[in-house]
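User: Sequence recovery, please. Input:
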């Protein structure tokens, strides 16, 4: 199988009180719903979380796709519009309205088992 070609990056922020709630929502509802869409060309999603000095908790998701056409199959013709379900909006303090897309130019994996 070939490597994915497009990465979709998005950020959202919660209060510390809502951070675990939001993470559980992602893991148990939103990510499975995305996978159930069975979008041809969708490859993966990674979740990142960090606590900020400002008192917020930042989340980032990085999705990978085979092509920009695959992104459009997932997100629609306005493919930069963020996919933020209503239940996520309820616990997010703020979020990016637009996702950013990057061409994946190189991926390296290090195998330290040698």
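Assistant: Recovered sequence (114 residues):
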């Amino acid at each position: 199988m070939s490597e994915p070609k497009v990465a979709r990056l998005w950020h959202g922020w919660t209060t510390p009180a809502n951070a675990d709630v939001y993470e559980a929502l992602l893991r148990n509802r939103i990510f499975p719903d995305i996978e159930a869409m069975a979008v041809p060309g969708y490859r993966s999603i990674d979740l990142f979380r960090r606590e900020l000095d400002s008192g917020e908790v930042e989340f980032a998701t990085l999705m990978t796709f085979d092509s920009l056409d695959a992104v459009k199959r997932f997100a629609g013709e306005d493919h930069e519009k963020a996919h933020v379900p209503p239940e996520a909006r309820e616990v997010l303090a703020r979020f990016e309205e637009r996702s950013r897309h990057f061409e994946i130019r190189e991926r390296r994996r290090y195998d330290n088992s040698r």
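The mean pLDDT is 95.
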